[in-house]
Amino acid sequence: MTGIIIQQIFNALTIGAIYAMIALGYTMVYGVLRLINFVHGDLFMLGAYVALAGFVLLAPGGGLVWALAAALIAIAVFMVVGGVGVAIERTAYKPLRNSNRLAPMLSSLGLSLALQTAVQITMGPQPIAFQSLFPAIPLDFLGARITTVQIGIVVAALLLMVGLKLFIARSRLGVVVRAVSENRRTAQLLGVDVDKAISTIFFIGPGLGALGGVLFASYYGVMMPTMGIIIGLKAFTAAILGGIGSITGAVVGGFLLAFFEVFGTAMLPILTNGWLGTEYRDIFAFLMLILVLLFRPAGLFGEQTSEESMVMKRDF
Amino acid sequence: MLSIAGLAAGYGRKQILSGIDLEVRAGEIVVVLGANGAGKTTLLNAVSGMCRINAGRITFKGTDITAMRPDRIAAAGLSHCPEGRQIFQRLTVEENLVVAHVGRGGKSFETLREEAFALFPILRERRNSAASRLSGGQQQMLAIGRALMAEPDLVMLDEPSLGLAPKLITQIFQIVLDLAAAGISILLVEQNVRLALELGDYGYALESGRLRVEGGAQKLAADPRLAEVYLAGGDKGAVHA
Ligand SMILES: Nc1ncnc2c1ncn2[C@@H]1O[C@H](COP(=O)(O)OP(=O)(O)OP(=O)(O)O)[C@@H](O)[C@H]1O
Ligand SMILES: [Mg+2]
Fold this sequence. Notes:
Chain A: It is a multi-pass membrane protein. Chain A: Belongs to the binding-protein-dependent transport system permease family. LivHM subfamily. Chain A: It is found in: Cell membrane. Chain A: Keywords: Amino-acid transport, Cell inner membrane, Cell membrane, Membrane, Transmembrane, Transmembrane helix, Transport. The complex is a heterodimer. Chain A is mainly α. Chain A contains twelve helices and four strands; from the N terminus they run ααααβββααααβαααα. Chain A has one domain (2-227). In chain A, 74% of the residues lie in helices and 4% in strands. In chain A, β2 (138-141) and β3 form a beta hairpin. In chain A, α2 packs antiparallel against α3 (63-93). The longest helix of chain A has 32 residues, at 2-33. Residues 305-316 of chain A have low confidence and may be disordered. Chain B has two domains: 2-77 and 153-240, P-loop containing nucleotide triphosphate hydrolases (Rossmann fold, 3-Layer(aba) Sandwich), CATH 3.40.50.300; 87-152, no CATH class. In chain B, 37% of the residues lie in helices and 27% in strands. In chain B, the strands form two sheets. In chain B, strands 6-7-8-3-9-10 form a six-stranded mixed sheet, sandwiched between helices. In chain B, α7 (166-181) links the parallel β7 (154-158) and β8 (185-189). In chain B, α3 (93-99) packs parallel to α6. The chains are: A mainly alpha, B alpha/beta. The complex binds adenosine-5'-triphosphate and magnesium ion. The site of adenosine-5'-triphosphate (ATP) has 12 residues of chain B, from β2 and α1. Adenosine-5'-triphosphate is lined by residues 11, 14, 16, 34, 36-42, 83 of chain B.
């Protein structure tokens, strides 16, 4: 029994780390532009495909060469998808910056479909096997069977999140990004190049989300063009749960949602006497989304009273 | 230093200012007066690129800045200390200073920060506090300190005395005098007419978006038309000028 629980804890940590990495992108973009970037889930998907291209191109052997190739691929994924994120902002959002808030959201929905379709046309709609970024060695831990892939995912995600936190909290560019998200006009008045700050956000957010995609594909061993839809929505839920706009909130929300989902799913057949099976796992995330929007739309770390946290509720 | 000719400006389709001619020379303190809603803030916004300009020309240090982006104007050495201070509440005192310095050449951040701390020692004590925890007076000091991080040649101050105790107002105005003595030009918007004209070299009075009177500070203080500007605007508090 304890073995099963520990097993589930590890599963939840793995999924939670991935949700958190994607949720960060939603929350950072929202924090600066008050925009829900619906294409973010598809950038997550794109990350996995770019990594696949990297594996095919480099065709690494085993051992050290492989580790080096994996690191190179991770950097390339970050740069390529980060660049795509910046390009998307420049072409699809920036021209709409002074229009109605709904316009850029519709633009992002359109882009989401376009990106999925483009990948579907070039790579085919069928699932493709994905080689894990980390070696898969099964380990026995207190009766639970975990793999080095899971450990690799959690460690990599945590390192990236700590790096992001340090960047935002300590670096000068991080200070500027926070200033722009608090008051764009004043930041510009003080000489801040606002476009540059926004580009920074649209580089880091999609870059992290894309690495999340690589981790996700490493965990499940497959990918497909539509994989960003559900995972994107779940990570978005995690961001709302944590309080959209809050970086800490996105991370906490990602892990909380994963624990709720993993343990809920395990209990589902027991609770419903076998009537609902574990294939209904997705209901947990969306139940959570509905509950949060109903009872605490500002999320856990959002400011309950602030104007912007309530904007969501008013616009939809 | 700053020269405005035939300016008409507003927000969106709404025109607020028209026919404005104004001059600020090097090291001079120029005061802009006028009742509530006369367009003083709009005038400063027009200079720093924050509102729509429909006609006219604004030149700063010989360069046309009429169609320039606000961040470029600030980078050119024109600092705007906005109405209501607009401190970044979620940033610390020191981070507020960082924002105004990022991406600039010239003196290092540490040097300029020390200069600001020397001017306002309280900011040094509170450097790591969240700016939201500062008192109104301290926030005004931070706003001025922040404006100086750009090593400006001209600082525009929008009602720096608003909501402050008399002792603090004296202190802030003394700093303004010191800045001017150090060669920084000042364009000051003030509701406190008497104090402003004691401080300033030259003054302009706006009424409903147009220039009504202008002149040397002492002459303007004695001009009966100045009181009319306030009466016309319906402002009761400032007629004692
Ligand atoms: N962002 C804006 N959009 C539209 N109209 C505005 C805006 N800001 C100010 N106005 C209008 O412009 C006119 C001039 O306002 P402005 O703020 O420049 O006056 P002011 O002289 O600074 O007044 P106060 O002494 O109250 O600060 C007012 O009628 C005001 O309603
Ligand atoms: Mg004003």
